């Protein structure tokens, strides 16, 4: 966009100066929230006294799935199971890099059985290197792949020993980060990758510094000097639980400030309503397990 008027607004960005953001096609595994409910409390967002509407959750989830497909991504679905109301949060059930699958081991006994359903899905779909962790490991809830290394969260869910285990089993460098705010109990509530690293450039990430320990903040600043720093107002509506394909960035619709920050950098924010799923402490990323072949 180039016309005289844009020059009068300081906040307007010259579109021709924006970096070209090139999307890459992704493969996701998702689980419909057919048995979604908030029946127990394992994070500060969950309140069993607040009613949840399963039909609305299904609608919001379906829009998310269809949005991925519209962008050309492949989406597989795993069959949801009665009695596992959090199974919609597929991100917690596997970390897949180079076709190697590292399964999950949940901290909460209420979620423990989810791990085996996902393990079986991977085996039945032809994945031959499927390993289950011996340490508490909530998978992509606490692991974010930058294209070069696996950022790994701990503090609330995933055991720090699971980081070393992931490094050994996946054969990728792992960088441990400590979460300190119970509202941001998984790494994927505090940080997400906007664009993976290339041969010449580090990954671009967005994160909420306030969710991390002082030492981890310094690690992040050192690794990602160009990161998008997410403000509290956006973090508090699950803005850090975004999903990016390198260009299109799906965010909870309330995360307007973050959407503006991303647009200025050449990304295309896509705002979706995930209000029903947030009642369980989840957002777009939590519903999405990425399969990297
Ligand atoms: N109620 C679920 C839990 O507390 C929500 C999980 C959200 N998933 C995520 N990847 N952050 O375990």
Automatic annotation (TrEMBL):
Q: Which NCBIfam families match?
A: DiMArgaseDdahMtb
Give me the segments passing through the membrane.
none
Say which species the protein is native to: Prauserella shujinwangii
Upper lineage ranks?
Bacteria, Bacillati, Actinomycetota, Actinomycetes, Pseudonocardiales
What protein name applies here? Answer: N-dimethylarginine dimethylaminohydrolase
Q: Does the keyword Hydrolase apply?
A: yes
UniProt superkingdom? Bacteria
Keywords tagged on the record: Hydrolase
Instruction: Give the record's family classification.
Output: Belongs to the DDAH family.
């Amino acid at each position: 966009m180039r016309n005289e008027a844009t020059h009068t607004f300081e906040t307007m960005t010259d579109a021709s100066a924006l970096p070209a953001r090139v999307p890459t096609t992704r493969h996701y595994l998702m689980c419909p929230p057919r048995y979604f409910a908030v029946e127990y409390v394992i994070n500060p967002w969950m309140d069993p006294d607040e009613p949840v509407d399963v039909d609305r959750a299904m609608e919001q989830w379906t829009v998310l799935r269809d949005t991925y497909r519209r962008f050309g991504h492949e989406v597989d679905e795993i069959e949801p199971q009665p009695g596992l109301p959090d199974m919609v949060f597929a991100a917690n059930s596997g970390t897949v890099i180079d076709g190697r699958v590292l399964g999950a081991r949940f901290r909460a006994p209420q979620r423990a059985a989810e791990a085996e359903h996902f393990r079986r899905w991977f085996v039945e779909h032809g994945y031959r290197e499927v390993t289950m962790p011996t340490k508490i490991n909530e998978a992509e809830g606490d692991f974010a792949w930058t294209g070069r290394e696996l950022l790994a969260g701990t503090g609330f869910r995933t055991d720090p020993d699971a980081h070393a285990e992931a490094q050994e089993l996946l054969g990728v460098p792992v960088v441990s980060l400590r979460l300190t705010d119970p509202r941001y109990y998984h790494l994927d509530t505090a940080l997400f990758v906007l664009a993976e690293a290339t041969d010449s450039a580090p990954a671009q990430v967005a994160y909420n510094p306030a969710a991390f320990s002082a030492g981890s903040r310094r690690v992040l600043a050192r690794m990602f000097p160009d990161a998008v720093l997410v403000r509290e107002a956006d973090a508090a509506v699950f803005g850090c639980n975004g999903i990016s394909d390198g260009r299109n960035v799906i965010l909870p619709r309330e995360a307007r400030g973050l959407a503006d920050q991303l647009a200025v950098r050449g990304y295309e924010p896509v705002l979706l309503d995930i209000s029903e799923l947030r009642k369980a402490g989840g957002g777009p990323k939590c519903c999405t397990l990425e399969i990297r072949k």
